[in-house]
Amino acid sequence: MDEKLIQRLESAVSRLEALSFGGGASVGHSETAAAALDPSIIAFDDLRSQFVGRVRSAAEKIGGQVLDVTKFVEEAFEAQRELLIKIKETQKPSMSVLAEFLKPLNDVIVKATKMTEGRRSDFFNHLKAAVDSLTALAWIAYTGKDCGMSMPIAHVEESWQMAEFYNNKVLVEFRNKDPNHVEWAKALKELYLPGLRDYVKSHYPLGPVWSATGKVAVSAPLKAPAPSRPLPPPPPPASLFSSESPQASSSLPTKGMTAVFDEINSGKPVTVGLRKVTDDMKTKNRTDRTGVISAGEKEGRVSSPSFSKAGPPKLELQMGRKWVVENQIGRKNLVIDDCDAKQSVYIFGCKDSVLQIQGKVNNITVDKCAKMGVVFMDVVAACEVVNCNGVEVQCQGSAPTISVDNTTGCQLYLSKDSLETSITTAKSSEINVLVPGAGPDSDWGEHALPQQFAHVYKNGQFVTTPVSHSGG
């Protein structure tokens, strides 16, 4: 407690020195020093000292890439502090100028994101948790209910939910290996929940407060044409900040049966384009028929996964009732944030992707997916995992039923509100369920569901019990 008090006193002294030195300088410098003494800035410095300092201390014990990505977290919070000071001296800019104004923070996030690209390292989960968490700092871009993003407090909470998916992996992987990694993961979570969330709730619940009489922010002149990147870069929610816009269905080439009927209705003769079959092409006259499939042909048929020849990726609401997420490959920033309890979500043919479902839906089905992560809040009926391989499903709210069918490798993360969930499995293996500990600092408990059973005929009926294996 004394050490924290000393840090706060030292921070206050440094601010007073900056203000005193600014007395003989320009008025603008004095205003900046005065803004640094604002209660909201002092509270933000306390946030950095207490929570960011804990993450840094834990990272120094680990070193390597974990320390490198933690330095980016420190740099991002420092950039946000500078922006908060500038906001108190600047009038509210237009949306086009806002992106330029927030560029220092965006640049840090871009640099941090590059650490997760390319070949995966042994600390990929650490990197993703830290990088994805930086999206929470984008609360500073909130300009009103029509700006396309959640209110600041909700945005911080939602952004952390995506990062928590990877943060939990760190906790599970190192809980019995290295307490320094566990300490780092817990400190990272506390930085945002309750740290940043409570700070925003206390000082900026409705977004940044711009100066009414300050200077006008202007965008820098363009030196050369270059594509602009909005703040923040994905992930997560691509729906809020991604510059990609969904391609209209009318612009896509006609496929499937629609193309067939279009061709029939075109008025052309139905035999146009057909090739004439000569006698030597007929099966009964072919001399190369052996009835044996070559090894190369067989391998070519088996090795291709079911989703390799699938159609274009989809993430759309059909008929106002069903969200369809199909053929998404390598997309870690998929988000469904505009849903209700009458809608269902169907996920099909996705690979190496992460989908976050924000809000309550009626039903969730994950079908024929591999290395897929699904994070959802509440489900009214059930969450179903069918014909999948290596998927992870995290329930952050409640779910009456979770069923796993014909699936190999499935990690289920349950929240405290979903511990009474009924879990059914059939024709599945390697099913693990992780539940939170009793206390806020307790480790997650991992439970492997049985996949082998013994059936004994007793008293006129079969009695089935799970088979347990003990290491000899």
Automatic annotation (TrEMBL):
<dbReference type="Pfam" id="PF01213">
    <property type="entry name" value="CAP_N-CM"/>
</dbReference>
<dbReference type="InterPro" id="IPR053950">
    <property type="entry name" value="CAP_N"/>
</dbReference>
<protein>
    <recommendedName>
        <fullName>Adenylyl cyclase-associated protein</fullName>
    </recommendedName>
</protein>
<dbReference type="InterPro" id="IPR001837">
    <property type="entry name" value="Adenylate_cyclase-assoc_CAP"/>
</dbReference>
<dbReference type="InterPro" id="IPR036223">
    <property type="entry name" value="CAP_C_sf"/>
</dbReference>
<dbReference type="InterPro" id="IPR013912">
    <property type="entry name" value="Adenylate_cyclase-assoc_CAP_C"/>
</dbReference>
<feature type="compositionally biased region" description="Pro residues">
    <location>
        <begin position="227"/>
        <end position="238"/>
    </location>
</feature>
<feature type="domain" description="C-CAP/cofactor C-like">
    <location>
        <begin position="312"/>
        <end position="449"/>
    </location>
</feature>
<dbReference type="InterPro" id="IPR017901">
    <property type="entry name" value="C-CAP_CF_C-like"/>
</dbReference>
<dbReference type="Pfam" id="PF08603">
    <property type="entry name" value="CAP_C"/>
</dbReference>
<feature type="compositionally biased region" description="Low complexity">
    <location>
        <begin position="239"/>
        <end position="251"/>
    </location>
</feature>
<comment type="similarity">
    <text>Belongs to the CAP family.</text>
</comment>
<dbReference type="GO" id="GO:0007015">
    <property type="term" value="P:actin filament organization"/>
</dbReference>
<dbReference type="InterPro" id="IPR036222">
    <property type="entry name" value="CAP_N_sf"/>
</dbReference>
<dbReference type="GO" id="GO:0008179">
    <property type="term" value="F:adenylate cyclase binding"/>
</dbReference>
<dbReference type="InterPro" id="IPR006599">
    <property type="entry name" value="CARP_motif"/>
</dbReference>
<dbReference type="InterPro" id="IPR013992">
    <property type="entry name" value="Adenylate_cyclase-assoc_CAP_N"/>
</dbReference>
<dbReference type="InterPro" id="IPR018106">
    <property type="entry name" value="CAP_CS_N"/>
</dbReference>
<dbReference type="GO" id="GO:0003779">
    <property type="term" value="F:actin binding"/>
</dbReference>
<dbReference type="GO" id="GO:0005737">
    <property type="term" value="C:cytoplasm"/>
</dbReference>
<feature type="region of interest" description="Disordered">
    <location>
        <begin position="222"/>
        <end position="254"/>
    </location>
</feature>
<dbReference type="InterPro" id="IPR016098">
    <property type="entry name" value="CAP/MinC_C"/>
</dbReference>
<dbReference type="Pfam" id="PF21938">
    <property type="entry name" value="CAP_N"/>
</dbReference>
<dbReference type="GO" id="GO:0019933">
    <property type="term" value="P:cAMP-mediated signaling"/>
</dbReference>
